[in-house]
Amino acid sequence: MSTRKVAVVTGASQGIGAALVESYRKLGYAVVANSRSITPSGDAEILAVPGDIADPAVGARVIERALATFGRVDTLVNNAGLFVAKPFTDYTGADFDAVTGVNLRGFFDVTQHAIAAMLENGGGHIVNVTTSLTDHADSSVPSALASLTKGGLNAVTKALAIEYAKRGIRVNAVSPGVIRTPMHPAETHEFLAALHPVGRMGDIADVVDAVAYLEGAPFVTGEILHVDGGQSAGH
């Protein structure tokens, strides 16, 4: 078996996900990158596996391709996420299916297969990207479906960390505030900056650095690391 470490990143085509792929390559990892719109890389150490992570077959395929190509899985970053902000009574059944499909079903399938591969390999690391809104609800950002799903990921982070603590698998979460990505139009930035006690939005590098810290922190598991400009502490 190859000794080169392998990271799997979902939601990897842009924003935080694309930056995570680059970060893991700089750490010397081979990377398996998944998103619906991912395109092949010129880097032989990056394997692009397209597909909608909400489809149960895709999570299995991502891990199978990782094992077939690189022989192992050391880290999984569950970065794919769908955020729909609406008043609670305006959410539709389609909204519920879409958000839970990506945020929960997508997490469930790829993580099950990744943990099975990690157990064969003697250990590994899982990082779930959640949201500070689960700790700090905000009346100006109605986000019940985000709290329902990402709050579940925060809880399961601790459950899996304890379940697998003695078997060499660490499980952590990064819980960001609002990060400056292409998802947020420039005209919303002033409003979004004001949601954070420090008075600015986060940068993609803030999240990437948090994941890199957790990757190199062997005594840290079950941690929900807030990268939110103080949001979860108060306002």
TrEMBL record:
Pfam families (alphabetical): adh_short_C2
Gene3D superfamilies associated with the record: NAD(P)-binding Rossmann-like Domain
Top-level taxon in the UniProt lineage: Bacteria
PANTHER family: BLL7886 PROTEIN, SHORT-CHAIN DEHYDROGENASES/REDUCTASES FAMILY MEMBER
The family this protein is said to belong to: Belongs to the short-chain dehydrogenases/reductases (SDR) family.
Identification of the protein by name: NAD(P)-dependent dehydrogenase (Short-subunit alcohol dehydrogenase family)
Taxonomic path: Bacteria, Bacillati, Actinomycetota, Actinomycetes, Pseudonocardiales
